[in-house]
Amino acid sequence: MPACHRSAVMPQNALRRLVQSIFLNEVFNQHRSSVSCCKGTQHILAFCYHNQFSCSVVVARGIIGTVASAVKEDSMKLCVTYCAKNKRDGSLPPDGLYNSLRIHRFASYCKEKHLNWAILSAKYGLFFPEESRQRYDVTFRSNPAYWIGTQVVAGGEGLPRSKSDIRLKELVKAVADQIATHSVGKIVYYYENRGPIQPPKGYLALLHSVVDNCNRVHSWPELLECTSEHGTISATVRLDFDP
Predict the structure, then answer these.
(1) 54 and 149 fall within a common domain
(2) Which residue range(s) make up the domain with 40?
(3) Which of 12, 39, 71 is the last residue of a domain?
(4) Number of domains present in the structure of the chain
(5) pLDDT digits over 63-80, tens only?
(6) Distance in angstroms (rounded) separating the CA atoms of residues 159 and 31
(7) CA dihedral sign, ordered 203, 205, 209, 215
(8) N or C: the chain end with fewer CB closer than 10 Å?
(9) 149 secondary structure, DSSP code
Protein backbone atom coordinates (compact mmCIF):
# COMPACT_ATOMS: atom_id res chain seq x y z
CA MET A 1 0.00 0.00 0.00
CA PRO A 2 1.37 3.47 -0.84
CA ALA A 3 2.59 5.49 2.14
CA CYS A 4 -0.08 8.18 1.65
CA HIS A 5 -2.84 5.56 1.83
CA ARG A 6 -1.26 3.77 4.79
CA SER A 7 -1.04 6.99 6.80
CA ALA A 8 -4.77 7.58 6.26
CA VAL A 9 -5.75 4.28 7.90
CA MET A 10 -6.81 4.83 11.50
CA PRO A 11 -6.66 2.03 14.09
CA GLN A 12 -10.11 0.76 15.08
CA ASN A 13 -9.82 1.87 18.71
CA ALA A 14 -8.70 5.36 17.69
CA LEU A 15 -11.55 5.63 15.19
CA ARG A 16 -14.06 4.54 17.82
CA ARG A 17 -12.76 7.16 20.27
CA LEU A 18 -12.90 9.85 17.60
CA VAL A 19 -16.48 9.04 16.59
CA GLN A 20 -17.52 8.84 20.25
CA SER A 21 -15.88 12.23 20.94
CA ILE A 22 -17.67 13.84 17.99
CA PHE A 23 -20.97 12.29 19.07
CA LEU A 24 -20.68 13.58 22.63
CA ASN A 25 -19.81 17.03 21.31
CA GLU A 26 -22.87 17.00 19.05
CA VAL A 27 -25.14 15.86 21.90
CA PHE A 28 -23.76 18.55 24.18
CA ASN A 29 -24.30 21.29 21.60
CA GLN A 30 -27.82 20.15 20.70
CA HIS A 31 -28.97 19.41 24.26
CA ARG A 32 -26.86 21.90 26.21
CA SER A 33 -29.56 22.73 28.77
CA SER A 34 -30.22 19.05 29.52
CA VAL A 35 -26.61 17.98 29.96
CA SER A 36 -25.20 21.15 31.49
CA CYS A 37 -25.17 19.47 34.90
CA CYS A 38 -23.18 16.47 33.59
CA LYS A 39 -19.59 16.31 34.77
CA GLY A 40 -17.34 14.10 32.68
CA THR A 41 -17.79 11.67 29.85
CA GLN A 42 -19.42 8.93 31.92
CA HIS A 43 -22.23 11.21 33.09
CA ILE A 44 -22.85 12.41 29.54
CA LEU A 45 -22.87 8.78 28.38
CA ALA A 46 -25.43 8.02 31.10
CA PHE A 47 -27.57 10.87 29.77
CA CYS A 48 -27.17 9.56 26.22
CA TYR A 49 -28.01 6.01 27.24
CA HIS A 50 -31.13 7.02 29.16
CA ASN A 51 -32.35 9.16 26.27
CA GLN A 52 -31.64 6.50 23.63
CA PHE A 53 -28.98 8.43 21.71
CA SER A 54 -26.73 5.35 21.59
CA CYS A 55 -27.85 4.32 18.09
CA SER A 56 -27.98 7.82 16.61
CA VAL A 57 -26.07 8.41 13.39
CA VAL A 58 -23.20 10.88 13.66
CA VAL A 59 -22.52 13.20 10.72
CA ALA A 60 -19.85 15.73 11.62
CA ARG A 61 -16.67 17.09 10.08
CA GLY A 62 -17.10 14.75 7.11
CA ILE A 63 -17.10 11.59 9.26
CA ILE A 64 -20.14 9.29 9.21
CA GLY A 65 -20.50 6.52 11.74
CA THR A 66 -22.93 4.94 14.14
CA VAL A 67 -22.52 5.36 17.83
CA ALA A 68 -23.84 1.84 18.26
CA SER A 69 -20.48 0.56 16.99
CA ALA A 70 -18.47 3.28 18.75
CA VAL A 71 -20.01 3.17 22.21
CA LYS A 72 -21.38 -0.35 22.44
CA GLU A 73 -18.47 -2.31 20.98
CA ASP A 74 -16.73 -2.75 24.33
CA SER A 75 -19.96 -3.14 26.31
CA MET A 76 -20.59 -6.08 28.59
CA LYS A 77 -23.54 -8.30 29.40
CA LEU A 78 -24.75 -7.99 32.97
CA CYS A 79 -26.82 -10.64 34.75
CA VAL A 80 -29.25 -9.15 37.27
CA THR A 81 -31.81 -10.35 39.77
CA TYR A 82 -33.85 -8.39 42.31
CA CYS A 83 -33.07 -8.03 46.01
CA ALA A 84 -34.72 -9.91 48.89
CA LYS A 85 -36.45 -9.02 52.15
CA ASN A 86 -34.32 -11.10 54.51
CA LYS A 87 -30.85 -9.66 55.12
CA ARG A 88 -27.92 -10.26 57.44
CA ASP A 89 -26.25 -7.74 59.73
CA GLY A 90 -22.95 -6.11 58.83
CA SER A 91 -21.36 -4.49 55.83
CA LEU A 92 -21.47 -7.31 53.29
CA PRO A 93 -21.25 -8.04 49.54
CA PRO A 94 -24.53 -8.94 47.84
CA ASP A 95 -24.13 -12.71 48.09
CA GLY A 96 -23.55 -12.30 51.83
CA LEU A 97 -26.10 -9.59 52.66
CA TYR A 98 -29.21 -11.30 51.30
CA ASN A 99 -30.49 -14.42 53.03
CA SER A 100 -32.18 -15.75 49.90
CA LEU A 101 -31.92 -19.12 48.18
CA ARG A 102 -32.75 -17.47 44.83
CA ILE A 103 -29.92 -14.96 45.16
CA HIS A 104 -27.51 -17.63 46.45
CA ARG A 105 -28.23 -19.85 43.43
CA PHE A 106 -28.02 -16.90 41.04
CA ALA A 107 -24.70 -15.63 42.43
CA SER A 108 -23.19 -19.13 42.56
CA TYR A 109 -24.15 -19.80 38.94
CA CYS A 110 -22.74 -16.47 37.75
CA LYS A 111 -19.47 -17.01 39.60
CA GLU A 112 -19.16 -20.56 38.27
CA LYS A 113 -19.70 -19.36 34.69
CA HIS A 114 -17.52 -16.23 35.17
CA LEU A 115 -20.43 -13.91 34.32
CA ASN A 116 -20.79 -10.26 35.27
CA TRP A 117 -23.59 -9.92 37.80
CA ALA A 118 -25.33 -7.58 40.23
CA ILE A 119 -28.38 -7.44 42.48
CA LEU A 120 -30.95 -4.74 41.76
CA SER A 121 -31.62 -3.10 45.12
CA ALA A 122 -34.61 -0.88 45.86
CA LYS A 123 -32.24 1.34 47.88
CA TYR A 124 -28.83 1.19 46.18
CA GLY A 125 -29.66 0.45 42.55
CA LEU A 126 -27.23 -2.04 41.04
CA PHE A 127 -25.28 -3.72 43.84
CA PHE A 128 -22.10 -5.29 42.43
CA PRO A 129 -20.16 -8.19 44.02
CA GLU A 130 -17.06 -6.06 44.69
CA GLU A 131 -19.13 -3.70 46.86
CA SER A 132 -20.29 -3.98 50.48
CA ARG A 133 -23.55 -2.56 51.85
CA GLN A 134 -25.53 -2.43 55.07
CA ARG A 135 -28.96 -4.00 55.52
CA TYR A 136 -31.94 -1.79 54.66
CA ASP A 137 -35.72 -1.90 54.69
CA VAL A 138 -36.84 -0.62 51.29
CA THR A 139 -38.78 -2.50 48.64
CA PHE A 140 -41.26 -1.97 45.79
CA ARG A 141 -44.99 -2.58 45.58
CA SER A 142 -47.05 -2.68 42.38
CA ASN A 143 -49.50 0.22 42.23
CA PRO A 144 -50.87 1.48 38.88
CA ALA A 145 -51.53 4.94 40.37
CA TYR A 146 -47.78 5.53 40.81
CA TRP A 147 -45.03 6.33 38.30
CA ILE A 148 -44.15 3.23 36.22
CA GLY A 149 -46.76 1.42 38.30
CA THR A 150 -44.42 1.15 41.28
CA GLN A 151 -44.66 2.40 44.85
CA VAL A 152 -41.63 2.63 47.12
CA VAL A 153 -42.16 0.98 50.51
CA ALA A 154 -39.77 2.04 53.30
CA GLY A 155 -39.88 0.69 56.84
CA GLY A 156 -42.97 -1.32 55.95
CA GLU A 157 -44.93 1.79 54.95
CA GLY A 158 -45.79 2.78 51.39
CA LEU A 159 -44.60 6.29 50.57
CA PRO A 160 -47.09 8.89 49.31
CA ARG A 161 -47.13 9.18 45.55
CA SER A 162 -45.13 12.42 45.36
CA LYS A 163 -42.31 11.11 47.59
CA SER A 164 -42.34 7.66 46.01
CA ASP A 165 -42.10 9.06 42.49
CA ILE A 166 -39.16 11.29 43.48
CA ARG A 167 -37.32 8.36 45.07
CA LEU A 168 -37.90 6.18 42.01
CA LYS A 169 -36.71 8.84 39.56
CA GLU A 170 -33.57 9.40 41.66
CA LEU A 171 -32.94 5.65 41.56
CA VAL A 172 -33.46 5.57 37.79
CA LYS A 173 -30.78 8.26 37.39
CA ALA A 174 -28.42 6.37 39.69
CA VAL A 175 -28.88 3.10 37.79
CA ALA A 176 -28.38 4.88 34.44
CA ASP A 177 -25.06 6.19 35.76
CA GLN A 178 -24.06 2.73 37.02
CA ILE A 179 -24.88 1.18 33.64
CA ALA A 180 -22.79 3.79 31.82
CA THR A 181 -19.88 3.49 34.27
CA HIS A 182 -19.74 -0.29 33.82
CA SER A 183 -20.33 -0.10 30.04
CA VAL A 184 -23.36 -2.39 30.20
CA GLY A 185 -24.83 -3.09 26.77
CA LYS A 186 -27.06 -6.10 27.50
CA ILE A 187 -28.95 -7.21 30.61
CA VAL A 188 -30.12 -10.70 31.49
CA TYR A 189 -32.84 -10.37 34.14
CA TYR A 190 -33.41 -13.49 36.23
CA TYR A 191 -36.64 -13.86 38.19
CA GLU A 192 -38.22 -16.71 40.08
CA ASN A 193 -41.16 -18.64 38.65
CA ARG A 194 -43.61 -18.81 41.54
CA GLY A 195 -46.53 -20.32 39.65
CA PRO A 196 -49.69 -18.22 39.99
CA ILE A 197 -47.89 -15.67 42.20
CA GLN A 198 -46.67 -12.76 40.07
CA PRO A 199 -42.97 -11.86 40.47
CA PRO A 200 -42.14 -8.39 41.88
CA LYS A 201 -42.82 -6.13 38.89
CA GLY A 202 -41.24 -2.88 40.05
CA TYR A 203 -37.62 -4.00 39.61
CA LEU A 204 -38.00 -4.97 35.97
CA ALA A 205 -40.14 -1.84 35.39
CA LEU A 206 -37.28 0.29 36.76
CA LEU A 207 -34.71 -1.37 34.48
CA HIS A 208 -37.12 -0.99 31.55
CA SER A 209 -37.38 2.74 32.27
CA VAL A 210 -33.59 3.14 32.47
CA VAL A 211 -32.59 1.03 29.49
CA ASP A 212 -35.58 1.37 27.15
CA ASN A 213 -36.82 4.81 28.24
CA CYS A 214 -40.35 3.42 28.62
CA ASN A 215 -42.31 4.81 31.58
CA ARG A 216 -45.70 3.31 30.81
CA VAL A 217 -47.59 1.30 33.41
CA HIS A 218 -47.62 -2.33 32.24
CA SER A 219 -49.15 -5.52 33.48
CA TRP A 220 -46.55 -8.24 34.05
CA PRO A 221 -47.20 -9.94 30.66
CA GLU A 222 -47.11 -6.53 28.93
CA LEU A 223 -43.83 -5.68 30.67
CA LEU A 224 -42.23 -8.93 29.50
CA GLU A 225 -43.48 -8.31 25.96
CA CYS A 226 -42.29 -4.69 25.87
CA THR A 227 -38.80 -5.48 27.17
CA SER A 228 -38.56 -8.31 24.66
CA GLU A 229 -39.51 -5.98 21.79
CA HIS A 230 -36.80 -3.48 22.78
CA GLY A 231 -34.25 -6.29 22.93
CA THR A 232 -31.73 -4.95 25.48
CA ILE A 233 -33.18 -6.78 28.49
CA SER A 234 -33.68 -10.53 28.31
CA ALA A 235 -35.93 -11.80 31.12
CA THR A 236 -35.64 -15.46 32.10
CA VAL A 237 -36.57 -17.94 34.83
CA ARG A 238 -33.75 -20.34 33.86
CA LEU A 239 -30.21 -20.35 35.21
CA ASP A 240 -28.67 -21.12 31.84
CA PHE A 241 -27.31 -17.77 30.69
CA ASP A 242 -24.83 -17.89 27.82
CA PRO A 243 -21.27 -17.14 29.01
Answers:
(1) no
(2) 3-71
(3) 71
(4) 2
(5) 333 444 444 455 799 999
(6) 33
(7) negative
(8) C
(9) G
